[in-house]
């Protein structure tokens, strides 16, 4: 008895199905929606103001001033807690909050735990704004030579009423 090729293929397929060894063809997978990595801006998340801190006239190094709180572009309310470390003469320095035009919204003295060494500090800085305001935090010292700000660390922030 001679079987045709077609008959052999059909019989092999039926035998495979009967024995449970048939290969299943996977169903096509539906396309998955792509997720956006960047969330859309909301009313409570302001776009950072690129020049709110303006040019730093006397930048500090990390051996002179390190600000750990607030973080860059953080939204803050009054009083603002400013934390970090500073190598300040006689453990005294200044903290200022400046608006986008460079005007002081707050300016006060701060104290670190030790002078002439990179030492921790934590200060509370009150401010008043009536609307959400981009601002620049300055932690700095005053030059004994001419009274100008020196070793300035700037942090752009957003003030909330």
Strand content: 35-45%
Arrangement of strands in the largest sheet: 2-8-7-4-5
Assign the CATH topology of one domain.
Immunoglobulin-like
Q: How many DSSP E strands?
A: 8
Q: Oligomerization state of this entry?
A: single chain
Distance between the termini: 95 Å
- Structural class call reads mainly beta
Q: Count every helix, treating DSSP H or I runs of 4 or more residues as helices.
A: 1
Tell me, rounded to a whole number, the average pLDDT. 83
- Biggest sheet overview: 5 strands, mixed
Low-confidence blocks of residues: 3-12, 14-19
Percent range of helical residues: under 10%
* Rg (CA only): 33 Å
Q: Architecture of one domain in CATH?
A: Sandwich
How would you describe this structure in keywords?
1 helix; three-stranded antiparallel β-sheet; globular; 161 residues; single chain; mainly beta; 37% strand; five-stranded mixed β-sheet; Immunoglobulin-like; 8 strands; disordered N terminus
Please tell me about this protein's structure:
- This protein has a domain at 65-159: Immunoglobulin-like (Sandwich).
- It is globular and about 40 Å long.
- Residues 3-12 and 14-19 have low confidence and may be disordered.
- The chain is mainly beta.
- The protein has one helix and eight strands.
- The strands form two sheets. It has a five-stranded mixed beta sheet, with no helix packed on it. Strands 1-3-6 form a three-stranded antiparallel beta sheet, with no helix packed on it.
- A hairpin with a 6-residue loop joins strand 7 (133-142) and strand 8 (149-159).
């Amino acid at each position: 008895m001679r079987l045709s090729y077609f008959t052999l293929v059909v019989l092999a397929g039926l035998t495979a199905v009967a024995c449970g060894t048939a290969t299943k063809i996977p169903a096509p997978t539906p396309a998955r929606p792509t997720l956006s990595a960047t969330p859309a801006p909301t009313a409570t998340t302001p776009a950072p103001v690129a020049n709110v801190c303006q040019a730093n006239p006397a930048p500090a190094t990390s051996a002179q001033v390190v600000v750990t709180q607030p973080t860059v572009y953080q939204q803050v309310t009054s009083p603002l807690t400013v934390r970090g470390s500073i190598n300040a003469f006689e453990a005294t320095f200044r903290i200022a909050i400046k608006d986008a035009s460079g005007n002081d919204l707050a300016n006060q003295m701060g104290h670190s735990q030790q002078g002439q060494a990179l030492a921790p500090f934590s200060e509370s800085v009150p401010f008043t704004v009536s609307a959400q305001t981009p601002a620049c935090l300055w932690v700095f010292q005053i030059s004994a030579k001419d009274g100008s700000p020196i070793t300035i660390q700037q942090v752009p922030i957003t003030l909330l009423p």
